[in-house]
Amino acid sequence: MKGALLFIAVFALLMLVIPMIAIGYPIQPSGESAVVHTPQPALLLPQPALSQPAAEEEDALVAPQAPPAFPVGEEPDTSSVVLGVAEFRLLDESTGEVLTVPVRDFIRGAVAAEMPASFHTEALKAQAVAAHTYALHHHRVQQENPDPGLKGADFKVDLANRKVYITEEMAREFYGELADEYWEKVCAAADSVAHLVLEYEGEPIVAAYHAISSGMTEDAANVWEGESVPYLRPASSEGDYLAPDYETEKEFSYAEVKDLLLAVYPDLNLSGSPDTWFGAMERSPSGYVTSIEVGGQVLHGKDIRTALDLRSHNFDVVDTGNGFVFVVYGYGHGVGLSQYGADFMARQGATFEEILANYYSGATLAEVALPE
Q1: Would you state the pLDDT for residue 372?
Q2: Which residues, in sequence order, are bridge partners of residue 331?
Q3: Which residues of 155-180 are buried (b: 16+ CB within 10 A; e: fewer)?
Q4: Which of 132, 211, 351, 368 has its CA at 20 to 30 Å from residue 309's CA atom?
Q5: At what angle do helices 179-192 and 168-175 cross, to 10 degrees?
Q6: Contact between residue 230 and residue 352 where contact means Cβ atoms under 8 Å apart
Q7: Are 35 and 52 in contact (CB under 8 A)?
Q8: pLDDT tens, 70-116?
């Protein structure tokens, strides 16, 4: 607890002398403040009141620091070269139309769709590299094993809901009075790194990203239940504690929880008293729920997140006597780059190379060569 209080005091001091994470025109929902938390090893059943926790998430939760994948403060070593493409084909889920978009325009539109333009330029650059890498990876997957549902596209986007990619016109409309300033900023950041992607063993990586981690990013193997991915392992992201809506609460009546869970998992036994519905909970080292006993079965935390529409699968369950409150930490699956964490790092002086090295340890930057 002392370590947590010291950590809070240091951050409070920093907030007086440096800009906090910018919030203007966020793509992700934001709140007025971020509260900090210590995940509990088991469910909190019951509690008489919902007081705000006063400690950071797991004092000892510090990721092992691997050496950066490229030199800090220097031009990245891009001696490796990855074959790129001149354009991407995007299936717009909102219309069913397949769009052909030049790479430069896609990177710009991806940054505008996925990260607030008010974020630090180095964070925008990191997002641009991640988005380009994401697109190139999926392009290669479709070349090798096409998905008929994509209608010949490389991957899906959702322009109506500003997911993955938006056009310049949409971005300008969204930015409003700041359209010229913000679009120029996004384009400058995207264009400056358009020749770079992240690679591992000669291939573009799965450059996963999310809005807010819970202080440490999650191992991909705990989310997608496969083998561990060398470059998608836990990374320290303590700046996320200061992100807007780092901690949120979602309240349900007993009947609502029962109906929502049984709609997805009809074999659950929720016939007894509500205080017996939830049992033992296990967490990953990053704090995310990897298993929880529910109605006589064991579910993954992400299953609960989906069924109850929670912001992440790092949560506590509080029985209030009238229903359940789910106290949720972070926003998204928690794997790869944390967008608010990236912005915080940038505001402390980190370059986009350092940001990428932190969140994708083991991956390296590579030049993109266009086909002749």
Answers
A1: 62
A2: 212
A3: bbbbbeebebbbbeebbbebbeeebe
A4: 132
A5: 130
A6: no
A7: yes
A8: 333 345 455 588 889 999 999 999 999 999 999 999 999 999 999 99
How many Cβ atoms from other residues are within 10 Å of residue 113's Cβ?
24
Residues with Cβ within 8 Å of 212's Cβ and at least 6 positions away in sequence, in order, are 28, 240, 243, 245, 246, 312, 330, 331, 332, 338, 339, 340, 341
Q: At 251, which amino acid appears? A: E
Q: Which two tokens stand for residue 8?
A: 């809070």
Q: Would you state the structure tokens that stand for residue 214, as one six-digit string? A: 């819970």
Residues of the chain with pLDDT under 70: 1-79, 372
- Position of tokens 């008929």? 148
3-state secondary structure of 318: strand
Q: Which residues neighbour 194 within 8 Å (Cβ) at sequence distance 6 or greater?
A: 103, 104, 107, 128, 132, 368
Please list, in sequence order, all residues whose beta carbon lies within 8 angstroms of the beta carbon of residue 61, skipping any fewer than 6 positions away: 215, 216, 285, 286, 287
Would you say the pTM of this structure is higher than 0.85? no
169 and 179 Cβ atoms separated by less than 8 Å: no
